[in-house]
UniProtKB/TrEMBL annotation:
Protein name: DUF6222 family protein
Source organism per UniProt: Amycolatopsis heterodermiae
Region listing for Disordered, in residue ranges: 1-28
One Pfam family from the record: DUF6222
Length: 59
């Protein structure tokens, strides 16, 4: 490409042509903000513990 071709769209090589992003169908849900000293691993452990108790009670 020469300096005179710099502003022309058709002067691009095929490798410089932008590729549109792939469509994303996933729903993104941000995690809620946690209070000071609270970590997600503690919350997950508590949920798993509750589930185990319910399974034990159901048996």
């Amino acid at each position: 490409m020469t300096a005179s071709d710099a502003g022309r769209q058709d002067a691009r090589s095929p490798m410089e042509t932008p590729v549109p992003p792939a469509p994303v169908e996933a729903t993104v849900r941000p995690l809620p903000r946690l209070g000071r000293g609270v970590v997600w691993s503690d919350i997950v452990a508590e949920i798993e513990h509750d589930l185990q108790e319910r399974m034990r009670d159901a048996a």
